[in-house]
Amino acid sequence: NILKYAKVFHFRSKEILDTFRLSKEIDRRRIKNAFKILNTLLLEGTEPEMILGGLRYCFQNSNLSYEEKKRRLSLLLEADLDIKTSRLKSPALALEKLIFNLCYFQKELG
């Protein structure tokens, strides 16, 4: 058996940071992690529109209530308009605002 003579090395694999992971961190309200992932995506050259599209896909295909999906998609649309019309200083700021709103503001019941 070769395993008796071989030594196994375990290398730390690089964590995959993508919009799916970003969506999970938002769902868990881990804003610090969400901002880190967003920053990494932007530094790697991911276009803001691609980030919005990935989040939209995640939200539409989740087990969220209809109202929560509607709320999140409304926030995504607002961020998209912020980016396309340059209402905010930069696309990164629009995405940060989006993540903040998704993590901290919920529709009030009643």
Would you write up a description of this structure?
It is a single chain. The protein has helices at 19-27, 31-43, 48-60, 66-84, 91-104. The model has no long low-confidence stretch (mean pLDDT 87). The longest helix has 19 residues, at 66-84. With 110 residues, the protein is mainly alpha-helical.
Task: Looking at this protein, list some descriptive labels.
62% helix
End-to-end Cα distance, whole Å, is 67 Å
Class inferred from helices and paired strands:
mainly alpha
**Mean pLDDT figure:** 87
**Major β-sheet profile:** none
Beta percentage is: under 5%
Helix content range = 55-70%
Number of β-strand runs: 0
> What is the rounded Rg?
18 Å
Count of DSSP H/I helices = 5
Quick overview:
The chain is an all-alpha fold and 110 residues long. It has helices spanning 19-27, 31-43, 48-60, 66-84, 91-104.
SSE inventory with pairings:
Elements: H1 19-27, H2 31-43, H3 48-60, H4 66-84, H5 91-104
Helix pairs in contact: 1-2, 1-3, 2-5, 3-4, 4-5
